[in-house]
Amino acid sequence: MAALAAFTARSMRTASPRPFGAAIVQTSTGRVLLRALNAVKQECDPSAHAEVRAIRLAAKRLRSLSLAGYTLYTTCEPCPMCMSTALWAGLDRVVYGATIADANLHCNQIHVSAEEVAARSDMSCIVDGPVLRDECYALFTHPRMLRAFRLWSTRKQN
């Protein structure tokens, strides 16, 4: 998780800072298959969350619909869309840093926990988190990220 937070933090030095990062890691060896960042704005795609992008890329790389034997690490608790994608992919485990409530302080969220999505499914997947919450939440409070949040149009303005 620390390596993923550091990878994601590098985006703070770019014109498009993003606090949402994800990695697909082989469960048995800890070998990182790939990492991805949220690209909703860059791809004009509301589904281009870091977790969904990582799962899509991993499935393509492995040429398999199943990611059994792999774990998804993510800097923020997966939203219901991302958690559902993890379940459909057959991931062994999902490990997250910051919580949905943490993210909601800065951008809109769907308030259904990853654990609840997993519990209401016929598919099994271990959900662990928060892990290194402070380090992951720091991505949301980085000064460049706070400026970027003010420009995002997903938050209702009062």
Structural write-up:
There is one protein chain. This protein is an alpha/beta fold and 158 residues long. It has helices at 2-9, 40-43, 50-62, 80-89, 100-104, 114-119, 133-141, 143-151, and strands spanning 21-26, 32-37, 70-76, 93-98, 126-128. Helix 3 packs parallel to helix 4. The chain is globular, with a radius of gyration of 15 Å. The protein starts with a helix and ends in a 7-residue tail after the last helix.
Low-confidence stretches: none
**Helix vs. strand class:** alpha/beta
| Global mean pLDDT | 95
Return the string of H and E elements. HEEHHEHEHHEHH
Which word captures the global form? globular
Give the C-alpha Rg: 15 Å
Q: In which order are the strands of the major sheet placed?
A: 2-1-3-4-5
| Strand runs, count | 5
Helix content: 40-55%
Q: Helical segment tally?
A: 8
Query: Alpha-carbon distance between the termini?
Result: 35 Å
| % residues in beta strands | 15-25%
Main β-sheet, in a few words? Answer: 5 strands, mixed
Short note summarizing the structure:
The protein is an alpha/beta fold and 158 residues long. The chain has helices spanning 2-9, 40-43, 50-62, 80-89, 100-104, 114-119, 133-141, 143-151, and strands spanning 21-26, 32-37, 70-76, 93-98, 126-128. A 5-stranded mixed sheet has the order 2-1-3-4-5, sandwiched between helices.
